[in-house]
Amino acid sequence: MNNQPTKVTLSFDNGNAPIELPVLAGTLGNSVIDIRSLGQHGIFTYDPGFMSTAACNSNITFIDGEKGLLFHRGYPIEQLAEHCDYLEVAYLLMHGDLPNAAEKQRFTKKITGSTMLHDQLNNIFRGYRRDAHPMAVMVGVVGSLSAFYFNNMEILDPRHREISAHRLLAKVPTIAAWSYKYISGQPFMYPQNHLSYAENFMYMMFATPCEEYVPNPILAKAFERILILHADHEQNASTSTVRLVGSSGANPFACISAGIASLWGPAHGGANEATLNMLEEIGDASRIGEFINRAKDKTDSFRLMGFGHRVYRNMDPRAAIMRKTCHEVLDALGLNNDPLFKLAMMLEKIALEDEYFVSRRLYPNVDFYSGIVMRAMGIPNTMFTAVFALARTAGWVAQWSEMHADPQSKIGRPRQLYTGSQAREFLPLDQR
Ligand code: ACO
Question: What pTM did the predictor assign?
């Protein structure tokens, strides 16, 4: 809305008195109509998928989908991705400001010193099938943390929330890497405190006890960038899930486990895995046309994975950064002629020129490129969403903590438009 009003009036065609509603202004972006008083009048609004509804106020992340802007605590994502490491961005999301040198050192020490898991958790992993999806293992093991770390769980106490947030940030990479180790039949590799957050994850994923593993600095930098670009994204499906679950007072580990479950869906974080699976299915440039036609066909449920975004109607700024990183990594690894990468670049070009995608403003999203980078790094497709989950943990814990610090926060309880049967009389079994 341009030239935004300060109040709006809701009028009715049945003679009911009009209702005046205040308009709340944020510091950036759209104002919102405050409809909280409507329930007192017995009136509810209808907005499936929250297309037009702000469910909370937040000062963590700002997105302008039209202009392609993403800010964390006011800092443009481009500057954070260029100059920060992931833990600085996590600190920014959680504490509101970038850390100074001493704060950064303390925070890094705190997180790297908490990366080990309770030894009994090894047995939880061992209860899963070896062919389980890593995200299924993550949902379970992260939820299980509440059976191990149940001290300091007074969620209305900021210090207790901080302790839980630190635990999650530190332990989720270990859980993600071990989910992979478990399904690949390799021994768990324990975290190494001298490595950076990104390097440590690569170590736990790729190292074995048989030989020394030194993370490739180009790949570690690219991985750090993937983590930063996925760290938070306002009120997306998984973050809203974390808030909704948390609104009942549920413990933080259960909330993040629910967020991981939501992220897993192919319309959300599962898109990076689905993109690579789609590219493998297309297999050859000669079949691109067939898949583009399927994506346009309204009788076919197929969608071009890695294209489109609910909020960004122009280029996703994260996608622009990831696209550049993608080229850097493939250059560094000499993979420019990799057939799947070439196929991806052809698909990108065709979709960017095709009237169907242009008119609907369906651009490649960050996951179109991050999947290609992760594949080049040797990360298997099934781990892509697990990597997204470990990156998003910073945003989830920041949003969860912000919600509990907000005195206006209430249990999430949407209403509905009932379209079922009218009231009817029960009939005994022999009369139905
Ligand atoms: N391929 C083909 N057509 C598409 C695609 C796609 N990837 N995405 C949207 N469309 C079409 C829809 O069919 C619809 O067409 P219509 O107007 O003719 O009916 C139109 O574009 C609008 O689509 P909606 O579904 O209304 O858009 P919405 O905002 O609800 O969905 C979403 C956004 C879920 C991301 C969607 O674009 C999609 O499914 N993309 C593929 C999955 C994906 O890449 N998800 C990752 C999101 S990014 C992230 O989570 C980090």
Answer: 0.92
